[in-house]
Fold:
Amino acid sequence: MADVINGVPKEMFDLARTLRMGEWRVVWEVIVLGQIDQVFDVLRQNAAMGWMMLTMVEALSALRVASERSCLTRTPLRLAAVFAIQLTILLLGLFQDYGIGLAKSLLVPTRH
Structure:
């Protein structure tokens, strides 16, 4: 997000001030409305990284618990449950990504 804000050209701020906008109006017009498309992209990337890390941690912890239980009780590993959790996380992540993309297409006007 800091890169998005720091990437705003100084001329945009100067233009807004030339149009006699107050400081809060400059922030709203230049940063919030002017960079909203990039904000949606950063949000999608951060959500994707979060789902990826959740998937990795869930898989590692579930396999560790299952293997410890299997060693102690001599029962077979229940990998079907682990894969079901993984599939659920994948589907939730894809649904969220689709939702953020849909929100971006509805809320952000396209630039030509």
About this structure: The mean pLDDT is 87.
